Amino acid sequence: MINYAKIILVFMVFSQQAHAALISNTDITASTSLVEASYSGNIFSVDEIADGIFKDIASPYGGFVSRVNSGTIRLDLNGGPYDLTSFTLYNDVNLGNQGIKDFRLEFFSDLDYLIGNFTGIGQNGFSVSGPQDYAISALGVSRVDLVVLSSHDSFGIEIREVQFNGSSSNSVPEPSVIALFGLGLVGLGFARRRRNRQS
Ligand SMILES: [Ca+2]
Ligand SMILES: [Ca+2]
Questions:
Q1: What spacing in Å lies between the alpha carbon of 96 and ligand 2's midpoint?
Q2: Ligand 2: centre distance to CA 94 (Å)
Q3: Ligand approaching nearest to the C-alpha of 124
Q4: Which one of 83, 95, 132, 146 is separated from 113 by 20 to 30 angstroms, measured CA to CA?
Q5: Nearest ligand, CA of residue 24?
Q6: What residue numbers bound the domain in which 115 lies?
Q7: pLDDT one-digit tens code per residue, 35-91
Q8: The Cα angle at residue 30 between residues 29 and 36, in degrees rounded to 5
Q9: Which CATH number covers residue 57?
Q10: What distance in angstroms lies between residue 52's CA and the mean position of ligand 1's atoms?
Q11: Structural domain tally of the chain?
């Protein structure tokens, strides 16, 4: 006989969706060994890659610039680990024909294991002035290395902002879900008792 209570219980548990959240700004701590460019006394420091400022066509730009065409930017995700579903890139400081081109995201667990990667291509600021979204799927991520493989021109790496979407890997089920779970357990108990009586 089919155990309907068990099927319902499994359905309820798996239908529980953790809440997606924007991981941005203070959720991200950026660091790099690349040299930060400066212009007219304005330093384009790496922390500006996640400072909440991205619609920056005029000074102060609120973006990161390094005059090399490749290199790694480390992004520690505070409050992680997270289950990531997308990456958002605001490419090119002071929109022009710049920005990163080929890049790879490397995902690390809280124990610092490399657990996956994603390869993408950024459009320059002439082509796309707004956010560029990339669907990704990576579970239990505490850190992302943004490895820039090439840039659109010799100005080097120019990024206004990065963000992720995802949910906490350790998210606690909501009370309503816990209540449903309890109901499912009760149902299981009834089903088992009935089966015991029949046998
Ligand atoms: Ca910024
Ligand atoms: Ca630019």
A1: 5
A2: 4
A3: 2
A4: 132
A5: 1
A6: 19-170
A7: 999 988 889 999 999 999 988 788 888 999 999 999 999 999 999 999 999 999 999
A8: 145
A9: 2.60.120.260
A10: 6
A11: 1
